[in-house]
Write a structure and sequence with these properties.
The protein is of the alpha+beta class and 240 residues long. The chain has eight helices and ten strands. It has two domains: 67 residues, Winged helix-like DNA-binding domain superfamily/Winged helix DNA-binding domain (Arc Repressor Mutant, subunit A, Orthogonal Bundle), CATH 1.10.10; 158 residues, Chorismate lyase-like (Chorismate lyase), CATH 3.40.1410. Strand 8 and strand 9 form a beta hairpin. Helix 1 crosses helix 3 and helix 2 packs across helix 3.
Length: 240
């Protein structure tokens, strides 16, 4: 085997163990000496494999203590995509549940009127849902739909997929969204609905969602427990 490729094979084998839960999160990897003996390679080869694992977020090397496996059980949420939670579920190897906490028609106050670009007091659907993953409540979704475009919503629709209903039943063509991502101090509502444990902050994704004719029909706030998610995107450099 090419000596320059040995560390990549060790790296791949360790990743396989971590991703298949054979090597548990928060456990310590064998020492460099133990790995050298196991794979019959040099210290430099082992260090190359460990450095690559650390660079890609699989381990954390702590001076004087060793290499510890990080929790990779995070949901990959596309920043620039427009994907429903039900569609994300199909990619997750997890037990998931949507709990509808509130479903009502409300009159837009100044805050909602500004975000949905509608007149004050116009009717708006208010939907508050908690997303439970592996029996832990870790997402709070607060969505507001302009009733001009969405005349009817039911608890069953909200538990299943609102987008599936809008596209397949109402024939709406959902096109794109503008998103803002911030980190905010957890509110009392966050603490009530989410299992935040010791976390005092939440990651908030605000979305302004548009139809094909560029009509703004939805404003949403998705509030996430910060340790359970990583937001992913693809970027291509365009030289200015």
């Amino acid at each position: 085997m090419d000596k320059n490729k040995k560390y990549l094979n060790i790296y791949s084998e360790l990743i396989n163990g971590i991703e298949n839960n054979k090597i548990k999160a928060n456990t310590k990897l064998p020492s460099e000496n133990e790995l050298m003996k196991k794979y019959n390679v040099s210290r430099a080869t082992i260090r190359n494999a460990l450095e690559l694992l650390e660079r890609n977020g699989y381990i954390q090397k702590i001076k004087g203590k060793g290499s510890f496996v990080l929790d990779i059980n995070k949901l990959k949420l596309p920043v620039s995509g427009l994907t429903s939670f039900k569609e994300l579920n199909s990619c997750m190897n997890a037990k998931v549940k949507t709990i509808v906490k509130e479903l009502d028609v409300v009159q837009a106050d100044d805050y909602l009127a500004n975000r949905l670009e509608i007149p004050y007091n116009q009717d708006v659907w208010k939907v508050i849902r908690v997303r439970e993953i592996n029996d832990k409540r870790i997402i709070l979704d607060k969505d507001y739909f302009n009733r001009k475009y969405v005349d009817l919503l039911t608890k069953e629709i909200c538990e299943n997929s609102i987008y599936e209903y809008l596209e397949n039943q109402l024939g709406l063509k959902i096109s794109f969204a503008k998103k803002e991502i911030t980190v905010k101090k957890a509110t009392q509502e966050d603490k009530e609905y989410l299992e935040l444990e010791d976390y005092e902050m939440v990651v908030v994704v605000r979305s302004y969602v548009y139809l094909e004719d560029i009509s703004l029909f939805q404003y949403g706030e998705s509030r996430h427990r910060p340790d359970k998610f990583k937001f992913v995107d693809f970027a291509r450099r365009n030289k200015m």
